[in-house]
Specification:
alpha+beta; Alpha-Beta Plaits; 8 strands; 28% helix
Length: 165
């Protein structure tokens, strides 16, 4: 089994309910112990300013399968929660991204690991630092904590609110 890290996000409808349902669904294919970061409300980055803020968290656990199988599990969970794919950067009920798959680097058309936005999204760095500070991000030679401390100003200024579970 391999350690994996996922980001969960939603910016539609009853966001807290969607986050809770995503956690329940990923708990069905990740082995324990499962770690979950604090819940974060984040301003949309790279999308229309009219969109509602996202609720996000980072989840880690063990997985016993291929990266492609994990991606299929994540896409299936999104679909169960009403995610409709079409227009890129549109509001979504569920967004589950594979951030890291052990220490592997994957560059395929359908899956890039580490996730291409892992270092460009403050919520990713905040959550990873919280649940896995000493874990290295593949291909960088640096830990999550080191990346957090070196966070570029353009990432550091992304608005974020930490919420209680």
């Amino acid at each position: 089994m391999i350690s994996v890290f996922l980001s969960l996000g939603t910016n539609m409808g009853r966001r807290r309910r969607y986050i809770d349902k995503m956690i329940a669904l990923v708990s069905g294919f990740l082995y324990k112990p499962i770690k979950i970061s604090r819940l974060m409300e984040t301003e949309p980055v790279g999308v229309s300013a009219e969109q509602q803020w996202f609720l996000n968290c980072i989840v880690s656990g063990k997985y016993d399968g291929t990266p492609e199988e994990l991606l299929a599990e994540c896409l299936g969970a999104e679909q169960k929660l009403g995610r409709v794919r079409g227009k890129q950067f549109a509001p979504r009920t569920a967004d589950i991204d594979v951030l890291m798959f052990g220490n592997r680097r994957i560059g395929r058309k359908t899956l890039t690991v580490p996730h291409p936005c892992i270092l460009a999204r403050r919520f990713c760095l905040e959550g990873l630092r919280e649940i896995a500070p000493r874990t290295k991000i593949a291909g960088t030679g640096l830990t999550c904590d080191q990346h957090y401390r070196r966070m570029p100003q353009r990432v550091r200024v992304q608005k974020i609110r930490f919420l209680a579970w």
